[in-house]
Each structure stands twice: as C-alpha cells, then as structure tokens.
Amino acid sequence: MMDRRLFLKTAAAAVPAARVAGSLALGATGEIAAATGASPAATADLPWQKTLRRIGQTNFTEHDPAVFDIEGWADYWASLKVGAVYISITGILAFYPSKVPFHRHGKYLNGRDFSGELNEAAKKRGLRTVARYSPDLNWGDALAAHPDWFMRDEQGRPLPYSEAPELFSTCMFSEYMTDYFPAVMREVNSRYDMDAHYTNGWPSFTLPVCYCNQCRLLPKAGTPAYWDKFNERFVSLWKLYDSIAKDKKATSFYMNNMGGGVHATPNLAQLGEFCQWFQGDNQGRNRGDAPVWGATQQGRVCNAVLDGKMATNITGAYTTGPVRWRQVTKGPAESSIWTSQALASGMIPYYHVVGGEKGLGEDLRWEKIGRDYFSWTARHDAHWVNKNTIANIGVVMGQRTQLFYQPPRNITMQQYTDATYSALLEGRFLFDYVHEDRMQLDRIKKYAALILPNTALLSDEQCRQLRDYVDQGGSLLATFETSMYNERNERRADFGLADVFGIHAAGPVIGRSGNANPYMARIERQHPILDGFTDTHWIAGAEFRLPLKPIENPVLTVVPGYTAYPPELSYPPVSQTDEPAVVLRERGASRLAYFPGDIEATMWLSGHTDLSRLLQNTIRWVAGSSAPVSVEGKGLVEVFAWETQPGFAVHVLNYTNPNAHRGWIREFYPIGAQQVKFKLPAGRRVTRVELLRAERDIPFHATGDSIEFTIPSVSDYEVAALYSA
Ligand SMILES: [Zn+2]
Question: What beta strand segments (E) does 148-253 contain?
C-alpha cells in the first residue's frame, strides 16, 4: 500500500476533471482568461474563485470617504493583476446610505455611496468584488434598543470592546446574527453586484464565553459539549448567509474570517465540506516568539480539509505582531517570506493595507512591496495551479486536543505544534496535515507513516481507524498522552491505542519539581533511532512523562529526574530502571514508535539537539525509504512538492536566518547548492526544469524513474518547476 507510484497515480486520479483542465492564459485582471472570455474551453467548469491568482484589499476606515483616492486605488490593484478586491460594507459603520436600523452611517459619509463608487471603479477594471462585513460589534444605541443582541459577562454586563469602549461585542447566538445582519446583506444584494460576501470578526479566534440569556442555556463554555453547540450555530449561520448570497446569483457565496492554523475554533473538517473559499486571516507573526512558518502551517491546515478548494492567506502590509501600527509598513523581507509561504503551501497570496489617508496613505512603502511580489507571481501563474501535494508523512492535527486538552505546564498546544514542525523542517521531511476527523483509511493509506504529536483526545472510532491503518501496513509515531482521553476530554484508564503500540500506563503523569533535572534516557541497545549518539549511555529525556509498564528488550529506559542544585546532590539516586523511555515495534510492514515523554515540547523549550535528533531519526525509521522527493544541502528550509498543471514543482523556502524563530526577517542569507532527487510517477517524464525565482532553466538528468538536478543557491525562496509530458 505504501508504493509511492501508486499513491501519485491514485492522488492524481482523485482530482476532479474541472481542476486539471486546459492551459492558463492571464487576462488583464490577473484572472485566468476564461473568466474574461478569452479561452472558455480551458476553465469553463471552474468556479470563478478558483481562477484567481492574487487578491488585494484596502480595508477602509471611517475617514476614507473624506480623503480616499478611489481611482488611484482601483488602478493600483488592477496593475498588480489581482483578480478580486474587497469592498467595505461593514455592520459597525455603513459605507453607503444604509436604511437598516442601527447600521450607523460613518461620520464622513455625508450621504455618499462610497461602497457603490468603489464597486463601480473595480468592476470597470474587470475585478471581482467581495463585500466585507463586520458583525462582531455595535454601538450603545443598538444595545439600548436590543439588549439581547449583545454578549454578557457573568454579572450580566455587556462587553465593551477594549480599544473602542463605545462599541460592544455582539453574541453569535442572538438575533443580531439572524435579523440584523441578514437585513444588511439583503440591502447590499438590492444595491450592488458583488461576487461574494465575507464577514470579518466572526467567528472569533477563541471560543466565546458569554452569559447572555441565550448562552446561559448552553453547555458550559470551553467544553466539548459547548463546542458541539458552537459548531451547530456556526454551520446554520453560514448556510443562512450563503443562501442570501445565492439569492442574488448562483455563483455567489458566503465565507468568513478564518485562520488560527491548527487552533481554529470551528470544526475544520466540517467546514471543509461546505466552504468555497477559506480566508486565512493570518497576516503575520502574531507573537514576539513566533517562528517564521506561521503561513505555511495555515496552508497545510487548508490542504488537510479543503480538497483543493480556494484558500487565501493574507499578508498584512502593515505592522503585525505584539506591537502594531496599522499605517506603518512592515519590513519588505518579512512581508515577502510570508507571502512566499502562502504560495509554497498552495494558497492564493493576498495583500492587505488599512486605510488611505491623503489619497492612498501617508506611508506608501507598501505599494512597491506588493507590486514587486505580485508582478513576479503573475509571470508564472500556471505553476501556482496545484493538483495535489506530494508527501509520504501525515501529521495528525488534533483539533479537540488543541481546544480542550490541558498540557501539564504553562505551555500552549501551539508550542507542541511548532516543536513538531521544527523537527520536520530540520529533517526536510515532506508531510501533510491530517485532520483527526478525516482519518478514514482511503484518505490516509497514501502515507507511509502518521505522526501523533501528543494527540491526547482521540475517540474510540478514531483509535479504530488508526488500528486499521496499522493493520494495512501503515506506521505510527506518537508521544506522551496520545489517546489517553476520549473525544469528550474524559481521561481513559489506559491508552486508547494500548494494543497498537503494546503499551500500558503505569500511573499518573510525572513532572519535575522546580529546577530539578528532568529524566534522562538510558541507551540499552543500539537501534536506527539512535543514529549519531556516540560516547554516551545517557541522552536527554523530557520534562514530563506518562510512566509505562515494563516491556521486553527496551531500547531506551528512564533514568528518573533528580536534584540539579546543589551539585553535590546532582547524581541519579536510581541510575537504571526497567521503565521504557521509548517503545518500538515492527508488525509486518508497519513500524510503531511511542515516546512516553513530551519530548517535542521539551525540545522546543530546551532547544536540546538530542531530542531533535531522536525525533528526526524516529520519523525516518517509521517512514522508511518512501520519500518521493529529497532536497539535500545546508540550511534550514521548508520544502513542498506539488503535482501542478504543467507537471511538478519543488518549493524551497530559506529560513536560514537569525530571525527565523523571532521576527522580523531583516535580510536574506543565501544558502548554497541544494540537490534535488524527484521520483516520477509511472509513465511521466520531465522535459524542462525552470527556476522561477532565478528565472532561468537548469540542467537535470534522469536516472531510472527519478530525475536529479541542483538548485545552485536559494536566497529567500526558489521554485523548481518541472515541465512534464
Ligand atoms: Zn450570548
């Protein structure tokens, strides 16, 4: 089952015919020609949004109707060959003379139809338009007239918005969402021809905690039972808004503000079934210690649930991060690596600026950054039409674990995710994310191995799916509390996957006190997962572990933690035990590895290279020699391989940079030669290899079913496009 050729063939066959149709020729708007009538045969069956290659947004402020240069705006975005722009409608402030009660007109509107003028200017240039709304906040007069529209704290008080306390948070379970907001959408339908409708600000990136009269009837906030109700409401509102969009025209649809990567609030597997455009509001690194790969992580999440439907990721042109200036442009290197990540991970790049004081703004540095990047992507549009990822490893993204599991320390689940991601990048593995609700055998059998990074919450059914996968020859790597909880976040007496790994819990989680040494792992015998460990019997363990019952012939055993200070007492009172620090099994073709320690989180906190090496070795051992593409060379890079419309593509993002783990990237440091080996599916051959960033062809040679070539250097990003017959 793990035959790579079979996988490529199967994956290609699964792509709907509409998405593999014809060649692409760009119209003046940046849309594929069929959308503008030039080559109808090529893309006639594609939904219009799938023909877009770039998106631009100026996010309008209340002041803009007094100062904004509409023609300059439309000219700028059209010249960047974006296919669509966003038109502000809102819900907080109307940008047109709305008659919907409580849709307050902006103070500078003066009766003007600003939304209509923008829409006309965009349409005149052949751009698609998306109506932008914000249903998340409204004013005191609405609160006074409709107190039930608003969220409440435990004492029943409304929740003023911290930065603008004259605005109050609306409740998604209230009639605000079913009366007021649909009225605004219908008014827009009656006035304008727009191609889609989009809400910002809802749903929120954390699950709501509200004590209004409706929400008091719901299960306790922050529980899986609440999440069920949240998802029910989310789906029903989405469908309501989508039906209103379609009342105007059949090709229209509704979408909303998503993002949050693995940590999103709605059930993403469910969303993937009806979502037509996933809008990744993930505009830049959001924390001081955020690593650089935030946008690719979002792309992998989209690939896991959308089955090739439209996904965009926003690059905020302005300052993003823990301290923000909405009207000061971000450094160009940070901006471009973020946009490159969107592209590499299969999303449509989307560039976003806020407001246009004195025409298009006072800080206009963003104009050149957007123009330079989008002019480049526009020269290579055919290569951004991906069919499917090429990867031999799946990483299970446990959305319930992300939302409900409490790690045994003050670490976030995002840090577990980043830690695993970091080891996968260091090892240059090709991997996809796999949503926990999409582990049916047909979906996951293409992977040689699945990784379960502390995927604590797994239902009996999900455990059964993993068991079936292993029975069919699939391999697993899991850590720490994986499968110790069911999907309701109830702790099991033993692992749900106990039989699969041959493990049994022997007691509660053991941590360390204060500054004490965490446990170490004693090498009991040699094994491929220990490659590179020489001159030592001990290697780093982890801060926390779930003790296991002894097994036969262990590879690593636990040396329990002990005093770090004073050094006189810093020696292990018990230096050898029979408690396993890893459990490895081979069953037929499948390889199984389980670490009782939270080794990835400890690696992330300590930076210890033992743990990174151990993880990479173990991933390599479980995945075997199935890697369809390898990229060898120096440097920290992220690699994607795609089957594309013209053939294949290998994307290499260069993160070899002092600012890879803390923003921003100031400049790029080119890395040297990268040797690529690419196994081709049966019956395919390559006729040409072009480097899209360097914009030149390079030599390659075929050996058996593979081709090999060398990318001489990578500055920020390189894409090797393989033209295939
Ligand atoms: Zn409420």
Answer: 160-161, 164-169, 196-199
Low-confidence ranges of the chain (pLDDT < 50): 1-41
- B/e letters for 432-461, b = 16+ CB within 10 Å, e = fewer, are bbbbbbbbeeebbbbbbbbbbbbbbbbbee
Phi, psi of 157 (to 5 degrees): -85, 145
Check residue 43 and give its pLDDT: 61
Question: Which residue has tokens 């993880």?
Answer: 615
Span from the CA of 160 to the centroid of ligand 1 (angstroms): 14
**Which residues hold their Cβ within 5 A of ligand 1, which is an ion?**
171, 173, 210, 212, 215
Q: How far is the CA of 169 from the centre of ligand 1 (A)?
A: 10
Per-residue burial over 634-649, b = 16 or more CB atoms within 10 Å of its CB, e = otherwise: ebbbbbbbbbbbbbbb
Beta bridge partners of 602: none
Angle at 194 between CA 311 and CA 246, to 5 degrees: 80
Say how many Å lie between the CA of residue 59 and the centre of ligand 1: 28
Interatomic CA distance for residues 354 and 316, integer angstroms: 9
Question: Which amino acid is present at 67?
Answer: V
Q: What is the structure's pLDDT at 44?
A: 66
Sign of the CA dihedral with 332 first, then 260, 410, and 574 last: negative
Cα 15 to ligand 1 centre (Å): 42
Q: How far away, in angstroms, is 233 Cα from ligand 1 center? A: 12
Distance 227 CA to ligand 1 centre (A): 14
Are 411 and 386 spatial neighbours (Cβ–Cβ below 8 Å)? Answer: no
Q: How far apart are CA 628 and CA 475, in angstroms?
A: 17
Q: How far is the CA of 689 from the centre of ligand 1 (A)?
A: 56
Q: What pLDDT does 260 receive?
A: 86
Integer angstrom CA distances of residue 131 from 187, 195, 243: 12, 8, 15
pTM above 0.90, yes or no: yes
- Cα angle for residues 370, 375, 378 (degrees, 5° grid): 120
Cα–Cα–Cα angle for 567, 570, 573, rounded to 5 degrees: 155
At 235, give phi and psi (nearest 5°).
Answer: -65, -40
